């Protein structure tokens, strides 16, 4: 009997302890509604960023045609002036031959017009003895008798005839010069188009992305390559506007790139405007020369949020819903006894079980603390 009593006593004690433990857990982790508060910050905020080239351009087609040459694949390195892409220019070359023929013809016409003008200056047609009717008299009589008689009678004006002939010859010269100039202009325009069939590297760099292949037909403005200068690298991050005042151009901040380890990055550019929907500002950070990183890699920035009067929003760490891939909280609508899911961007831990909220919540909003795992919109304590 004593052995059975001993086992029964141990079972009762175990049940009591289990009940007490479950009661304590349920009491400690019971869901409740808490307020988002603001407190002074003395820590760093961790932000995600992307490694980008120091310079990056998109090479686009300037003329329509078929791609007949592509210099390399993604990652291929080139020097400034190296040919990257070539588009078929056979039709443009044929048109250039036609323009050369027009230029030769226009040059001949201009030469003839100038000769006719010089002839009019030296030997006017209005005074040619072969151009008079003669009246049956010798040519010398036409010069000294017939022409003055006609002028006196008002039937003609020899001087005005000569002026008209000069203007006509000068007009022919001007027209010939205009035709020649037009042909040269068309040739220059065509040479520019022929030059645009070849895309060259604007600076030393590599091909970062390729959108075409040999044989593809392209149209003006169509992207063909992304080309970047990767000797120097940068980080590009969308920094919440509340953290921007703590950043100054030229200051250095810690950064961690993948598994490479921690290094320092220098603030190189702070955009003067913010995104109105996300309330973030684009900031670029220069990485040290020779850092082992590649464009597109993920990096974490450790930005300071300390300073005179700087505060951050904080919530209990237990308010984050477990079982979700992104930080999520339940915002309470106490009037209607319901909740809604909201994604938040969290910063560093602030102590006392609280974590900083960079964006997604406002001071004074009410959220659910200790929500059940996988809770969704509409769940409400004691609902």
Structure description:
The chain has 383 residues and is of the alpha+beta class. Among the domains are: 45-54 and 231-304, Efflux pump adaptor protein, beta barrel domain (Elongation Factor Tu (Ef-tu), domain 3), CATH 2.40.30; 58-88 and 197-223, RNA polymerase II/Efflux pump adaptor protein, barrel-sandwich hybrid domain (OB fold (Dihydrolipoamide Acetyltransferase, E2P)), CATH 2.40.50.100; 91-195. It is 30% helix and 34% strand. The protein contains four helices and 20 strands. Helix 2 packs antiparallel against helix 4 (158-196).
Explain briefly what this protein structure is:
This protein is an alpha+beta fold and 383 residues long. Helix content is 30%, strand content 34%.
- Main beta-sheet annotation: 6 strands, antiparallel, barrel
Task: Give the tally of β-strands.
Answer: 20
Shape: elongated
Bin the helical content: 25-40%
Share in β-strands: 25-35%
> How widely separated are the two ends?
49 Å
Order of helices and strands: HEEEEEEHHHEEEEEEEEEEEEEE
Could you give the order of strands across the largest sheet? Answer: 3-10-13-12-11-14
Structural class: alpha+beta
Mean pLDDT: 82
Radius of gyration: 44 Å
Low-confidence blocks of residues:
19-28
Counted by DSSP, the helix tally is 4
